Amino acid sequence: MVREMENEGNEIPENANEHCPGPQSESAGKSDSCEGCPNQEACATAPKGPDPDLVSIAERMATVKHKILVLSGKGGVGKSTFSAQLSFALAGMDYQVGLLDIDICGPSTPKMLGLEGQQIHQSNLGWSPVYVESNLGVMSIGFMLPDADEAVVWRGPRKNGLIKQFLKDVYWGELDFLVVDAPPGTSDEHISVVQFLKATGIDGAIIVTTPQQVSLIDVRKEVSFCRKVELPIIGVVENMSGLCQPLSDLRFSSLTDAGEQKDMTEWAIMYLKEKAPEMLNLFAFCEVFDSSAGGGAKMCRDMGVPFLGKVPLDPQLCKAAEEGRSCFDDGKCLVSAPALKAIVEKVLSELKASRMEDVA
Q1: How many CB atoms are closer than 10 A to CB 344?
Q2: Residue 239 and residue 77: Cα distance in Å, rounded?
Q3: Is-contact 207 95, C-beta < 8 A?
Q4: DSSP state of 281
Q5: d(Cα 105, Cα 109) in Å, to the nearest integer?
Q6: Do 213 and 293 contact (CB within 8 A), yes or no?
Q7: pLDDT in tens, 16-63
Q8: pTM confidence score
Q9: How far is Cα of residue 228 from the mean position of the Cα atoms in its chain?
Q10: Which of 69, 90, 103, 133 fits 205 for a cystine, CB–CB 3.0-4.6 Å?
Q11: What span, in angstroms and rounded, lies between the C-alpha atoms of 351 and 354?
């Protein structure tokens, strides 16, 4: 299946340079990225014209009301976890939702949606998404790999070709929301998905960060990217905003003279029950990342973009992601679920406000 998708309908040659603009581009054969490419002369002299696949993409996307890209400046900030839980939340509100994973080299969406081992199927309408529920469908290259541990070692043109196929060949049906989980950074995949979807109307991007400066530096670049490609920014989410969990869920230990840890959890919990039982209803909170510079909220004020809110680092949310389930269903994600729900409400409010501005 992967091999078929690599070549079917992909007009970019497999031996093209990594940042190939595409044979149909006006800069084909002329840009700096074309230097040394074996196809340079052919591309430079080939007739140019509109990409016919964009018409097919527009037809597919005509049945999708809202398209949201989830981006991050760097990896490891919880972008895919947020994409998955955003999709669960919207589906829980009875919207028809699609989640498209375009992280070709690191597809984690199948696991986070509890769909490992599933495969896609083809019908006369196109590729069918894999469904979590009747109103939540998922598409990812992870469903096409014969082995989950297999590395996808592809250059930019091949990855871009697969993204194009996802957009034009997957039959979603009528969708209220298509959530696109992109890889970290501002690479070819981001440029491609924006170009492919631009004519169909993209509502905007949600950018996920963590509070520390090393992450925010990259997020500023992501904001700059969005502005350069004229992609609206719905807002920024600060993930892992401090570790927060019930005091009763903590493990306690003491250090021996040899520097080894001795588990004291049972003693500590019994002591609290006897001496201060009301403390067991408290939540313990600590900063994991340095947010002394103001975190995501200050960055948003400085750059003039909406701040959607903070999601604490919740072990129960991490467990829900590992198990591929919604954090909203079992009542265990006591600190993260309400924070995520508030952010989803803000996203819906931002989209509604944006639509009203367009109408006006």
Answers
A1: 20
A2: 7
A3: no
A4: G
A5: 12
A6: yes
A7: 877 787 777 777 878 888 888 888 877 876 666 667 788 999 999 999
A8: 0.83
A9: 20
A10: 69
A11: 5
